[in-house]
Amino acid sequence: MTPERDFRSKPVLTALVAAAPASLRERLLARDEGALAELIDLASPWLLGITQSILRDREESEEVVFEVFGTAWDRIGEVEPDPRGLMPWLIRVARNRAIDRLRRRGRRLRTAVQAHSLGVLGELVTAPTEVNEAATPGWQVHERVHAALLQLPEDQRAAVRLAYFHGLTHSEIAQALSIPMGTVKTRLRLAFDKLRQTLAPLKEWVQ
Amino acid sequence: MTAHDWFLEHRAAWVARALDEEEARSFRDHLKRCPDCRAAVAELEAELAWLPMGVSPVAPRPGFRREAIERTLGRRPPRRWILPLALAASLLVAVGLVFQLERRVGALEADVAGQRTALAALEDTMSVARQAGRMLHASFAMDGKTCGMMILADEHTHRWSVVVHGLPPAKVGEKYQFWFITDGGMRQGVVLEVVPGKMATFTTGMPPGNAKVMGAALSVEPMDNGGPEMKGPELAKIML
Fold first, then answer.
1. DSSP letters spanning A97-141
2. pLDDT tens-digit profile of A15-55?
3. DSSP secondary-structure letter at A165?
4. Which residue has the higher pLDDT, B125 or B207?
5. With contacts defined as CB-CB under 8 Å, which chain A residues touch B58?
6. Given an 8 Å threshold on Cβ–Cβ distance, is A40 in contact with B53?
7. N or C, which end of chain B is more exposed by having fewer CB within 10 Å?
8. Strand residues in chain B grouped as ranges (E)
9. pLDDT band at A83 (very low <50, low <70, confident <90, very high)
C-alpha cells in the first residue's frame, strides 16, 4: 500500500467530514505542511472530478485545483470557519473557479463542447467507472448524492446535471436540451426543492 | 408576481450559478440590499453543499500530489512544458560538450604535433651534432658573467647546430641576433630565444643565395632591426 493510499484505511466519513477537516483546519492554521498533504490526499479526487466535469480539460482542471489548495493554504486564517466544514468550502471554491474559467470561453463553444460531451460522457456524473473508487474517502457522501439524484425524474436530473455538474446557465441548458428556458427553470426549481430536502441530513456530518 | 418573487424563485439557480450573466448581475445587486435573500441563499448553499460530490472522483495523476504541495508552498516545480525545454537545453549542452571535446582533442593534437616538431628539431640538432666535422667556440662576457657560443658544423649537409650559454634574457625592445658573415656582407639568422638558466640551441641551414659563409656573429640588436647591418654591440664572432 503506497503512502498516498494510507488514508483510505480510515473510517471514510469520519476522516472526510467530521474529524479530519476540523483538525485539518487547525493544523493548516498552524502551517503544518503535513496537514496540507493530508488535505490534498482527501480532497483532490473530488475537486478534480468536479472541475473536470465542468471544464472537460484535465490540465485546466488541475490548474484550478492547484489554485484552490493555494487559496486554502494562504487564506485559511482569513476565512471564518465554515460551519459546514472545510470540504464544502473547498468544493464551492473549486466549482466557482471552474465555472469562472468556463464562462470566459466563448458561449457557443462551451455549449457545443458540453452538449457533445454529454452525448459521450453524460452518465459520467452518476455512473462511477472504477470499482476501487468506493475506497476513496467521501465515497459514502457520493453515494448519498447519487441516490438523491436517482430519485429525480430523468428530465429534472438532466437539467441538474447540466447546471450543477457542467456549469451551464439556464439559456445554455435550454439550447442543449432544445426546450424553452421557462421549462428549464421549472425543472431546476423542482429538482432543487427535492434535493435540498434529501441532502439536508448531510449537514450534520460537517458540523 | 412582485419583483421580489423573481428573486425568490431564482435563489437556487443563483446558488447553482445557472443564471445568465445579466440575471446574475441583477441577483448580486439584490443580495446586497436584501438580508432575507442573503440568509436564504446561505441556507441553500449549506443544504446543497455536498451536491457537487455527485461527480465521480478522479484519481490524481502520478506526480500531482507532489506538484500540488510544492506549488501551494511556493516551490513551483518545473512545468510540464519545461521537460521538452530541458531536453533541448540538455541537447545543446551535449552539443557544446562535444564541441569543447573536439576543441580539446584538436588542441591536444596540435600539442602532439608541436611536440613532434620539437622532437624532430631535437633529432635534427642531434643529427647535426653527431655528423659535425668541426666545432667552433667563442667566449664572451655579458653583465660580468662568462658566456659562450659554440657551433657544430656538418660540412656534408651544410648545417650548423648552435649552442649559446650564459646569456641573460634580452631586455625589452632588444633581441639576441645570430648573424652569418658572408662574402656578400652580413645576413641575419635566427633570433635567439633565451630562457634563464638554460642554453639556447638551434639548428640552421645556410642563408639562401650563393654567398659564401665565412663565419658567424652574435649581437644585441634593437627589436626593429631587420636589415643586413649590425647596429647593436657585437657579443661574439667566430670565423671559419
1. HHHHHHHHS-HHHHHHHHHHHHHHHTTTTTS---GGGGGSTTHHH
2. 444 444 446 788 888 888 888 998 999 899 999 999 999 99
3. I
4. B207
5. 45, 48-49, 52
6. no
7. N
8. 134-142, 145-154, 159-165, 174-182, 185-191, 200-205, 213-222, 234-239
9. low
DSSP string, A40-70: HHHHHHHHHHHHHHHH--HHHHHHHHHHHHH
Using an 8 Å CB-CB cutoff, list chain A residues near B22. none
Whole-complex ipTM:
0.79
Cα distances (Å, whole numbers) of residue B159 to A42, A168, B54, B127, B137:
93, 101, 103, 10, 16
Q: What cell numbers appear for B199 in the block?
A: 642554453
Position A106 confidence tier, pLDDT thresholds 50, 70, 90? low
Q: What angle do CA B59, B63, B69 make, to 5 degrees?
A: 100
User: A7 at the B interface (CB within 8 A)?
Assistant: no
d(CA A19, CA A10): 11
- Contact list in A for residue B53 (CB cut-off 8 A) is 46, 50, 91, 138, 141-142, 145
